[in-house]
Design brief:
Elements lengths: L8 E5 L4 H10 L4 E6 L20 H7 L2 E6 L4 H12 L3 E4 L5 H5 L3 H7 L4 E6 L14 H8 L1 H4 L14 H25 L2 E6 H13 L23 E3 L2 E5 L4 H10 L14 H6 L1 H12 L4 H10 L4 E3 L3 H4 L3 H6 L2 E6 L3 E6 L23 H7 L4 H9 L3 E2 L6 H4 L1
Parallel strand pairs: 1-2, 1-4, 2-3, 4-5, 5-6
Antiparallel strand pairs: 3-12, 7-8, 8-9, 10-11
Helix pairs in contact: 1-8, 6-9, 8-9
Length: about 400
């Protein structure tokens, strides 16, 4: 696949979301990503719609498009050696195994960097290899809980809520892909390879901090109370749905009341200015939200936009595909997967003038490219057959009725 990362090879020894999402981001920018899977496969192959179709789901397909898959038993010394040989020719090695796994397999940073000093080795974990939580399983909900994210989603009754997407995993994947690119830039400046650690808990707190912790940022004793206006960050019910409206400036606050047919309300000194509203943000929000509630969704959005107030309908997921701006931007691509059939996938959300990206290859079947990749490593047909016979490697065959589902 063409793109700014064309010619960069990535070995992804990772499962679920944080590592694979980092690999997917690199793949859709043009990197060659080889996904190393166990005989059981990435756990996402069994989660979500499509599990009866060749060990493939829509969930897996969206985090693994653009990659090649090789199945290796890394617990066997010969299997681990295959991964080491892959890393010998790689630019980036991504792994998100639990602490101690890569060390036991001989795939730790010192092992691979000794063989390939130019390798950018990226380790992704929940909290890092040390500390009181290092031995515990750690998933996205833990990151949302410990970072303060869940508390910031509290409803009007004070009950905290998770954001209903694996935001911690995806944020960590974005930081990890950026870290890999930073490592490549440093290597290009003559600094060689290195080991980079990315921790989900750290990533979530850093990502959340600026606005989520705005009321806790300034610490001097003479600083007055700082309300957290994010507590008023909410959808607004309407007669037949819900909207969002961002009222940041005095002009926008006046505009929302003009849209509601009550321009005089905005002149009240208690909330006429940003400084005044920041002290009673919830009261100001509730005042216009209660008025918006009597309007039909589409009508009030049109009224607000006519007053230059940022507003949008809260769309159901299926409505997203017919939104006029989404259609204009051609955000969604409709493709045919060899096993899943027709699927929707988002296009790469970045446009490059000099290095445009193409459509990523389909998400790989389990071990679809095992023989192909082993051949590139120098294994001949007899050697590959021997590895298969011993159960060290495996691969999907397009004529296998079980694989086809």
């Amino acid at each position: 696949m063409a793109g700014p990362l064309e010619g960069i090879r990535v070995v992804e020894f990772a499962t679920t979301v944080s590592g694979p999402s980092a690999g997917q981001l690199l793949a859709e920018q043009g990197a060659e990503v080889i996904k190393v899977e166990s005989h059981d496969g990435d756990v996402l192959r069994g989660i979500g719609a499509g599990t009866t179709r060749g060990h493939m789901t829509g969930y897996f397909a969206s985090f693994n498009r653009g990659k090649r898959s090789i199945v290796v038993d890394v617990k066997d010394p010969d299997g681990a050696e295959i991964v080491r040989r892959l890393a010998d020719g790689a630019d980036v090695f991504l792994q998100n195994q639990r602490p101690g796994v890569v060390e036991r397999l001989g795939l730790a940073p010192p092992d691979l960097l000794a063989r390939n000093p130019d390798l950018i080795y990226v380790s992704i974990s929940g909290v890092g290899p040390t500390g009181p939580y290092a031995h515990l399983p750690f998933y996205d909900p833990m990151s949302q809980a410990l970072s303060g994210m869940a508390a910031l989603q509290a409803d009007r009754e004070g009950r905290s809520h998770l954001v209903r997407t694996v935001i911690g995993d995806k944020v960590t994947g974005m930081y990890a892909s950026q870290a890999a690119l930073n490592g490549l830039v440093a290597r290009g400046a003559g600094k060689g390879g290195q080991h980079i650690e990315v921790r989900m808990l750290d990533a979530m707190i850093a990502w959340l901090f600026a606005d989520g912790f705005m009321h806790l940022t300034l610490t001097d004793d003479d600083i007055p109370f700082q309300p957290n206006v994010v507590q008023g960050y909410d959808t607004i019910p309407t007669r037949d749905g819900a909207i969002v409206a961002t009222i940041a400036t005095d002009a926008q606050f006046a505009g929302v009341w003009r849209a509601l047919g009550r321009p005089e309300v905005a002149e009240d000194p208690k909330w006429k200015t940003v400084a005044a509203r920041s002290q009673i943000f919830k009261e100001a929000f509730d005042a216009y939200a209660s008025e918006i509630a009597i309007f039909p969704r589409d009508e009030i959005v049109a009224r607000l936009r006519a007053e230059d107030v940022p507003a949008a309908e809260v769309l159901e997921p299926e409505e997203v595909f017919t939104d006029p701006q989404v259609l204009h931007n051609e955000v969604i691509d409709h493709v045919e997967h060899p096993v899943l059939g027709g699927i929707r996938q988002p296009r790469v959300p970045v446009s490059y003038g000099a290095t445009p990206v193409g459509r990523p290859r389909h998400a790989p079947m389990h071990g679809e490219h095992t023989d192909e990749v082993l051949g590139e490593l120098g294994y001949g047909p007899e050697a590959i057959a021997g590895l298969r016979a011993r159960g060290i490697v495996a691969g999907w065959a397009p004529d296998d009725p079980v694989a086809r589902g």
